[in-house]
Model the fold of this input.
Amino acid sequence: MEQTVSLRQKHLPTRSGENHAPGAFLSEAGARVILGEQIQPKGVVRAVQPGAETLFGPRGAAMMADGALWICDTGHHRLLGWEQCPTVNGKGADWLIGQRDFSLEGRNGHGEVGAGTLNVPTGIASIGSGMAVADAWNHRVLIWWETPQQSHQPADLVLGQADFSDSEINRGNNRPAANTLYWPYGVHWDGERLYVADTGNRRVLWWEGLPSHNGQAADGVLGQQDFHCRDENAGTGPSAMSMRWPHAVTRFGSALAVTDAGDNRVLIWTRPSAANGQPADCILGQRDASAEAHNQGEYYPTASSFNMPYGITAFDDLLVVADTANSRLLGWRLQEMGDGAPASVLAAQPDFCAKGDNRWGAPQRDSLCWPYGIAAADSHLIVADSGNNRVLLWERKP
Done:
């Protein structure tokens, strides 16, 4: 049964009180399975060559309804699929979309744009029995009605463009519309609405139900008052309504949450929005709706601040945020959330005031370097650890 979120204003702690002892929510042994890692003994990183076992700057990964794992291998401009969730480190992918074979790379496979090509794929989500992919630099979202079970399977539907051969920003127009996209980085399906973080247009679009035809216009927009504005923070300054660099979307109980990486915050609506430009009800990461500085203007982070948060997911009773430039994961429980509320759980750093890629050392099974995308799957978290060119399958702590 869906939980109703009650968000309440909390007294904001002083900075000296924000480094309370963090709770651990992921296994302290680190990731159970690591895919794509190219680390040799003594922490030396091998050059990344495209192959069935390698990843280059992956920004998204998700488990599908049929149990398959799909990863956006962003830097290689391709999707990699595993028929079942891997149980051993470094297992090679079973399927490939976006390139002719596993040894090749290049935008749109160095060819024409089509239903099976990709240019900087980022977000990925399960939608019913199929999947949706944010094909960011083709300025479109691709949808498969059934999760692919073979290599080179073309998409069934495209959003943001009139057809599969087009790839221009906002379809070549100076202004956006309800049926155009500009650098869409994130995609999320909650069973009722399809959400797209239309990052370059500084907005989040939603469709009521799954779209049925190519280029279908969105039904609503957040971050802008209408479908035709793309100004940063809606042409003014940061507010509870505006966005600067929305990147990912998730549902958490009855709430909707969006990472606004450019304003270093997370926007939360207590229930899915009913009107265009509806202001958020709660903001995490900043002291008020007009603030935008990373780490709230300080060098070191706290439990209440972010530095370019990109990824977000609902993980059982936790809202988990990938605090990307601080190379860490933060989590809040339903009852803990309120304006500026501090996180209660942490992963990849020793305390809330610590930062640094891989804790300023070599990659470890429990460290991160610029995590971009996160997704929950049963008892583990899937982390696109982009700076380490790998994806982690990290189990929840018992």
The CA atoms of residues 68 and 83 lie 5 Å apart. The radius of gyration is 20 Å. The chain is about 0% helix and 30% strand.
